[in-house]
Amino acid sequence: MSQALVIAHRGASAHFPEHSRAALLGALDQGAHGVEVDLRLCADGRLLLHHDATLKRCCGDSRPVSAIPSGERARLNACHRRPDLPPEAPLLLEEVLELLPSTLTLFLELKEGPEQLPALKRALGKRREALILISFNGQTLQAAGALLPGLPRLWLRGGARERTRSTQQGWLAWCKMNGLQGLDVEAPQARGTLAQECELAGLHLGAWTVDEAEVARSLQEKGVRWICTNRPAEILAAL
User: Fold this and answer.
1) How far apart are CA 68 and CA 78, in angstroms?
2) How far apart are CA 157 and CA 148, in angstroms?
3) Is 202 exposed, middle or buried (0-12, 13-18, 19+ CB in 10 A)?
4) Dist. CA 73–CA 127, nearest whole Å
5) Using an 8 Å Cβ cutoff, are 38 and 111 in contact?
6) CA-CA distance, 39 to 41, in Å (whole number)?
7) Residue 164 and residue 194: Cα distance in Å, rounded?
8) pLDDT-derived band at 233, boundaries 50, 70, 90
9) pLDDT exceeds cutoff 80 at 1
């Protein structure tokens, strides 16, 4: 049994504000094998690290991400919920690519539709190594295969309870039909035989978001390839 890779969910976000520079560097310090980030389009067509549609929760600004030009980021604070930390402007994807070593795997979650892909292609430039595209949006993943050939793509699937085997078989069939490399599922979906069935189909399986040591060990034993967590140091120690 090989050790599952530990992927920092929005950085080391149990210890620092999600998607902040502090969280990304914290993930490095804690030894994470990779980092997962969410991407949304700004008003001027650049990609901002942000999960929610609005800036309210993380930056204290009620506007949607799509309403702000990227040049206004300096007026925002990605750490506004942590007054003990220095203020930080939210990061653009280009800044993340410069901040983190190119050997660290980046899982790039596209929160919107295929309209994000031209901006993604511009931001990445010629870089293709250690990048994985993930999305819940099947159309986005299909379009990414055409616009960014060669980049691994994973279909995100969620749910608080394990789905039926026939549903999961449908997921595998869709991935195979569209040339995806695998699934990235909410942890309850990986409790059964999905990892083994992915392997038989020539696909990979990852799970999110796992902060409990016992759950992480169980998923690793089932053959899950990577585990996304807010607590990379603790999960690394558990595995």
Assistant:
1) 14
2) 22
3) exposed
4) 25
5) yes
6) 7
7) 11
8) very high
9) no
DSSP string, 71-135: GGGGG--TTTT-TTS---PPPBHHHHHHHS-TTSEEEEEE-S-GGGHHHHHHHHTT--TTEEEEE
Look at the pTM and tell me if it is higher than 0.90: yes
CA distance 49 to 65: 10
DSSP designation for 54: B
pLDDT of the residue at 159 = 87
Domains annotated for the chain, with CATH where assigned, are 5-51+92-238 (3.20.20.190)
Residue 90 has φ and ψ, to the nearest 5°, of -60, 150
User: Is the pLDDT reported for residue 37 higher than 80?
Assistant: yes
Q: How far apart are CA 87 and CA 95, in angstroms?
A: 16
158: closest CA among 134, 188, 132, 198? 188
Residue found under tokens 């595995």: 239
